[in-house]
Amino acid sequence: MANKHNYYLPHHGVIRESSTTSKLRVVFDASAVTTSGKSFNDIQMIGPKTQDDLFSILLRFREHKYAVTGDVEKQRSLQQIIYRFNSNEPFKTYTLNTVTYGTSSAPYLATFFANCLVSLANETSNLNTQRSMKHDFYIDDYLGGANSIESAVELAKDVKSTLESAKFNLRKWQSNSRVILESLNFSNDCTNKKLNLDSSPSKTLGLYWDTSVDTFYFSINNSFEHQYTKRNILSFVSQVFDPLGLEGPCILQAKILLQHLWLQKCGWDDEVSPKIKHEFTNIISCLCQLNSIRIPRWTLQDNPQEVQLHVFTDASERGYGACVYVRTISTSGLIHVCLLISKNKVSPLKPTTIPRLELCGALLELQMAQKRLLSYSQQEMILEEYALLMASKPIPKGGRNLAKSIVHACIRCTRHNAKSPQPIMANLPAERKYLEFPVLNTGVDYAGPILIADRKERGCKLQKSYICVFICFAVKAVHLELVTDLSKEAFLAAFNRFISRRGKPQNIYSDNGTTFVGACNDLKRDGVCRVAEVQTKRGPIIRTFNNLCPLPVNQS
């Protein structure tokens, strides 16, 4: 106990009546905090994710016509326990020499060996076996299959022999075909095999597979013998294990009820209101009705000529969701439709419009398609070619040039990879480079149109108007004038107001619009001189003036 590097794992037993091999299972709690304030999981490196997620594994499991399942038979000083075989013996310290489930690094350690075996079996196993061992394992549970009995038997034997070469025994085989089990020299001891892929003891109610009819069904406990508190309600709802969303409508009602409990801000062990109790009773009865529902595991049919994915989304004030159906058409014209996956979410607490919630449902659909379905379909399409490239000789010379020519000739690739042109900006005019007096060089343009009211009282009329914008080139000062139309008379009136307040500019720049050109022509036709060229030491400059007074010239 004095060694600071020792850790004693708290553990307890969990009885599982539905288990076919281990009725009593030991559960270790490596998250228990010690007197140092840290647990075993706090000081461990979890490790990278080396396996596919549960969603993808179950999705592939529903593609095979013939499915097979199996289970692998299961730093030492930090994995110590205190135990005695009977109450008369003293406590002894034992060290666990195996991978202990309950630690944060257990999933990585349990799946790392499978990847090592795949790399070692690249030369002896076929591509299908390598793919199945890499993608169809969830921790120590194997879910695979094939579209023919011969392929399924060959796959199961290859996977089992590969694991046995590393002293890993794959047991508890199950299949929807008696022929496959007899070929493997195993007996189907139990008709119903529970797909309890999560080793957490809290998920005891989950997805069941009836191998006799090859269907999924649910086993929901209809008895609730606890007090109606938020803790017990949350514990009951969290027991439902539905990774594919097959129980979506009933689970959504439970999620909405939990949201109402959080809004009421009641304590964990406080009795809920009679209204919540009545709603929860209805939810339990709705969940219990799922026990009579059977969902086919196999989503396809024999000799499919065309496979389609149909996605539906919808939203309401209480929640939104999306579901995906598989529609297959056989060579004989037989149409088969099956629910593949679904997902739903509760509407946020912040008030949101129905159109926005429908967009959230569409986003949920796109996320499922982008992360799951599309990537998985693309992977399946090029899987064999990719594996052949990985196992073949080095890439021949000239392959890069060939790839460039193909990509360059692809119209769709050119359209998607096109870059917007970057315009070449012209140099700044000379009037913008030097600091001068304000409004000496000014630019003018119109903004609008805008609507203005002719008066503030009731019954006013809206009139279309424009804003004349004067911008100083030196200090970027802005002067705004309101004009009623685009005529030259309106501009000249605004220009006179600008001069009266800011002074006369030396140069005025515009985009040569018809309004500005007409005003410039009118100023030239009145015969009044307004500018003059003055010689200075730095050269000639153009200045504006109001009155021109001739001075006498001294001849001397």
Automatic annotation (TrEMBL):
Pfam families: Peptidase_A17. It comes from the Eukaryota. One of its GO terms (molecular function) is nucleic acid binding. One of its GO terms (biological process) is DNA biosynthetic process. GO terms for cellular component: DNA polymerase complex. PANTHER family: PEPTIDASE S1 DOMAIN-CONTAINING PROTEIN (PTHR47331:SF4), PHD-TYPE DOMAIN-CONTAINING PROTEIN (PTHR47331). This is Integrase catalytic domain-containing protein. It comes from Euphydryas editha (Edith's checkerspot).
